[in-house]
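Recap quiz, item 2
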Amino acid sequence: MKARVKAIYNQISDDLKNRIMQGKLSPGEMLPSQSQLAETYGVTQMTVRQGLGTLVEDGYIYSVWGKGYFVAEPTLETGIINLPGRNFFGQEFTPMMNEVDILRADQEIADKLAVIVGSKVIRTQLTLALGDNPVALDCRYISYRKGEPQLENELQYADFPQIVARHTNSVVVKSTFSIEAVHLNEIEASALETSPGALGLCVEQILYDVNGKPLGWSRMVCRSDRYKVSGVAQSYSGKV
Amino acid sequence: MKARVKAIYNQISDDLKNRIMQGKLSPGEMLPSQSQLAETYGVTQMTVRQGLGTLVEDGYIYSVWGKGYFVAEPTLETGIINLPGRNFFGQEFTPMMNEVDILRADQEIADKLAVIVGSKVIRTQLTLALGDNPVALDCRYISYRKGEPQLENELQYADFPQIVARHTNSVVVKSTFSIEAVHLNEIEASALETSPGALGLCVEQILYDVNGKPLGWSRMVCRSDRYKVSGVAQSYSGKV
DNA sequence: GAGTGGTCTAGACCACGAA
DNA sequence: TCGTGGTCTAGACCACTCC
């Protein structure tokens, strides 16, 4: 066993964290002041602040100007979800077939990408499979700005935000997504080897650049008996 | 107009952030060292570190021991989603009817809550509505440990994690959730004023305490034509 | 005015990576 | 060995809150 040296500020934050988790410090309760903690632990104010800082980041406590630090209420109102990114292809799913073409935007595409009807748009279509079983149909639209979509083979490996970034010369910094239940239509059903009207889950995602301009739109339709969305929510962001 | 004084470390982080967003600093590129930055901005290393710290927290850069700071690759693989918490009742939806009872766990409940079959379990059932239109059926199970479920009226106002915490004397620190498409059964359909077999979205959530023990299980079934799940993903956590 | 959090300095020393 | 990031000190001053 090696006596691992731990930074003092980590010892302080761990100590306070434990007291919070054990209920010795209750939500809403005020912590000792920075100067008191500094004296208690025999360190300077800056070191104490560093420890308190990590607790603030992780959501255990918060500070009020001129008053003090207080123990936060644990909440679970937001969750984190894995989106169809790079790992989606690499690890879980394998793309079975893909198609890339350029088309003119119809009304729906124009709305989603905030371009005028008739604009050039790059479309990619994939079938995602788990082993030999097709699970999802994936259709993506990128507003066409520069460069040719000569990278058919690259498309299935890189993740969508990266492809969009390359084609639009913009960085994707935000995306919105929605998840809804749908009935599969004939095309989707036959591609996913099931019957029309079967239960499906549709995950839609729109990518935006820094200025809030839509750069890409993806729509994935899954067989709901083979895939469901899952995620985690934690009241404290740090490792417990 | 008031000339707002901004902290030096914020000026530094803003400056670097702009250079990253404008592409003057590319992903993978190394930043000037702490001492170089200190000299450039005419401040001490500690002040520079504070500025770099916020950029690390927000995911713009990362540091490598003994080497330097590097510009991070933007990723969008995880998203944040709003879960049925307090705001779910308070703002969007109104609970129309509720029911509270105690029952013995069947196999399914026992599995979810990690208790033995036949254990006492508290069950609450709500109908959630948007205006006059019923949108979702919500059913929640709490492993019964102490205290009586005397708080029928309180149940519809507090959020689930809080109720669970009060009944189990434990803090809810984690939850997992899943979202899947379902067909509504007769009971659900009639409660939601639609026909059996209609499209539904089912959001399931399990709450855990610090030791990973399940404390509660909730299952919400929505009319998919009146509700869909949505969320946001951002590559940088700070405000841009 | 006393107590609090927030910023900043000018040093010091340690741990790590690469040459 | 040198340059890098990571930790820490012993002060100082400012801004805010409450009495």
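The longest strand of chain A covers residues 94-104.
Confidence is low (pLDDT under 50) at residues 85-91 of chain A.
End of item.
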